[in-house]
Amino acid sequence: QVQLVESGGGLVQPGGSLRLSCAASGFTLDDYAIGWFRQAPGKGREGVSCLRSSDGIIYYSDSVKGRFTISRDNAKNTVYLQMNSLKPEDSATYYCARAEALRYSDYGPTLYEWARIGDYDYWGQGTQVTVSS
């Protein structure tokens, strides 16, 4: 059974840090890209970051570049999102999702593909991040 389970969200002050985890089960990370997305109340879901497990290529949205870092622990089948210098506008529910590498000609999404929500077939339940003083 395929599962993606996020954890690590919470309330943090502006400038603070959080590390989100996405624990994957029921499939092998090697065959998928794992994306982090977020959705704030009243707004659409947007891509935050993506890790192509096939070759380690990483993408970030412009809004988080330089502040967030995506990484992977093969032994734990888990993908992390380290979030530093958090801002109130980072407040949202954060989701991880998987996209099968085989659906892409490059065995993983390109810079123009990684944030396409429809490419991701399984999603976690989300974890809430609130940045407020």
Overall 3D form: globular
Oligomer: single chain
Classification by helices and strands:
mainly beta
Instruction: Report mean pLDDT, rounded to a whole number.
Output: 95
Q: What is the gyration radius calculated from CA atoms? A: 14 Å
Number of strand elements: 11
Beta-strand share of residues: over 45%
Element-by-element helix/strand order: EEEEEEEEEEE
Number of helices: 0
Largest sheet: 7 strands, mixed
Poorly predicted regions: none
Q: How far apart lie the N and C ends? A: 40 Å
Structural account:
- 0% of the residues lie in helices and 47% in strands.
- It is mainly β.
- A hairpin with a 4-residue loop joins strand 7 and strand 8 (78-83).
- It starts with a strand and ends with a strand.
Notable traits:
seven-stranded mixed sheet; four-stranded antiparallel sheet; 47% strand; globular; 11 strands; 133 residues; mainly beta
Summarize the structure.
The protein is mainly β and 133 residues long.
